[in-house]
Amino acid sequence: MTDMFSRRSFLLSGAAAAAACGAPALAAMPELTRADGKPSPIRLGLASYTFRNFSREQLIGFMKQLHLNELNPKDAKDHLPMDPAAEAQAVADYAAAGIHLHAAGAIYFREDNDADIRSKFEYCKRAGIPVIVAGDPSPETLPHLERYVREYDIRIAIHNHGPEDKLWHSPLDVLKAVNKFDPRIGCCIDVGHTVRAGTDVVAAIHAAGPRLFNLHMKDLTDFTAKESQVAVGDGIMPVREIFEALIAIKYPGFVDLEYEVHADDPMPGVIASFAYMRGVLAGMGYNSRG
Q1: Of 1, 213, 237, 286, which sits most exposed with the smallest number of CB within 10 A?
Q2: Could you give the percent of the chain with pLDDT greater than 90?
Q3: pLDDT digit string (tens) for 171-219?
Q4: CA–CA separation, 87 vs 264, rounded Å?
Q5: d(CA 252, CA 135)
Q6: Crossing angle, helix 2-21 and helix 267-283, to 10 degrees?
Q7: Residues ≥6 apart with Cβ < 8 Å to 158
Q8: Global confidence as pTM
């Protein structure tokens, strides 16, 4: 127990120092390898909403500092615009920087009509994105979404938003609604909103199994208080147990940090969060960068 807390303190203090000095985050961290040389089954990424107050150029710069090349972009600022020409430029910019787009969202399906739904699938098809993180589709929309999931072969991951969400408090609510539909309709588990809904997040991961397509990582100091969000590792989220559950279900997707606090200066918390998650993976014997 002492070793675990010593490692945690070391990682967080080192990350904070890097942030304070303006140094490239984790630049000196050695590549972590398992004895057999295999990469980590947990792949870390970033939800671009974390940097919603910053431009795409700044976002790319931050990702380089963080040694990340996996992004879940959102139509915020100029991260991934809906306009086709602007979107094409964004995709080109990410490709030039070596950044891969593995999901997009949250994308909201506020209109239950074919034109609106098709436009969202076309948006992801143009960018080569295989997973739509859907913010608020109603249960009545699911049969329509299923038709487009089949046509485009793009998965839908419904994002739960906790107690405030009128429809999807918990991933378990999502799973009840989607289990009769095409297996490409599933969930994005937001771990913070999940625990605030009173759901055991580790049990929810096991329940989701192959219908888990994306995971948003955050941390809280109080599982009943949305405003208690902190850097990952500073709260009480069971990060190692979450990783173990993802490995157990052979989760093929990404763990995307969605750091929603300190929107005007998120980098210190983001650095600390990735340092902690990489440290947890190192403690589990994995190459954390995948």
Answers
A1: 1
A2: 81
A3: 999 999 999 999 999 999 999 999 999 999 999 999 999 999 999 999 9
A4: 24
A5: 21
A6: 150
A7: 134, 137, 168, 174, 177, 178, 185, 186, 187, 188
A8: 0.87
